[in-house]
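Hello forum,

I keep getting stuck at the same step: I have a sequence, I want structure tokens, and every attempt I make locally crashes halfway through. Rather than fight my setup again tonight, could one of you with a working pipeline run this one for me? It's a single chain of 347 residues.
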Amino acid sequence: MISKRLRIGIAGFGAVGKIRFDVLIQNKELEIVSVSDQNIESRLDLQPNIRKYKDFEVMISHEKLDVLFIALPNYLAAKATILALNKKMHVFCEKPPARNPLEFKKVVEVAKSNPDLKLMYGFNHRYHPSVKKAMAIISSRELGDILNMRGEYGKSAIIKFDQNEWRAKREFAGGGILLDQGIHLLDLMRYFGEDFSLVNSVVKNSYWNYEVEDNAYALMQTNNGIVALFHSSATLWRHSFRLEIGLTKGSILLSGILSSTKSYGNETIKLTKANPEKSGEPEETTYAFLEDTSWSEETNMFIESVQNGIQIESGNLEEARKTLELVYRIYKSDGDWNKKFFIEKDF
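Reply #2:
Ran it on my machine without issues. Output:
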């Protein structure tokens, strides 16, 4: 058990790094010691007592930190994680955990050689209020067993996705809309259901025409027969989140998700109780959620696991590995995409 005031560093101070900072700064048991960012000179909102670095490697090397939060571009995430673990720091890293499963294997090796250190990944959708309510209902089995899932997660045309941006280059990003955003929806499908044993897919970059995908479609099935339809898209021309779960006694529909931009609409969950024996409409109840507590709950859960030695359940090393590998199974199962981008070498 760690009783001292934890010394915190943040690698990457873009939108997500700033969100984590805003949560961490409220905890009086923590001391934010340093922050790194390529544009650190423009971060005038940081207190003068917080040391500032342009290079995260220099920060990790020079600072005696207890915990490092990583919010770096995909091509730097695994490298920063390994450096921090080797410096005996606990690590929280945003998704994706690496550009591909092969790169992530190196992280796994280092993490397993440091079993006393906590490592958690930022799949914060699990902490959204609608998702938590859905999981409680599924766990109670009041609507029976899951039969199928159908999900869509996509962005509008107004996205930072051009040929001069690292997200458009496979070398730096590892993948496109599937790895960047669709990974959250896949993680939720795994979270609610089971691991998928069968995966069929179509992966496209036919509109933006960059090295990474702008659409990914998948039809998947678990060993117990749960079927899932999945679509991750950068050509919906609007922000959209929707996940429908069919069960033996009804259904659950998650629609919209709270975000800083408010662009995905209201976060709601609609519960439908089946009425197959009688005529008439089924019983439906809709709940709306007005506050996004996911960032604070996830961040605080990780800090508590470090302070009190609590085992990490959601977002742990194994969960991150399985979700990342599912992403690449979708890439791989499209033979044309696999051949074009040599997905085999990434496993």
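The domain at 6-117 is CATH 3.40.50.720 (Rossmann fold). If your local run keeps crashing, start a new thread with the error log.
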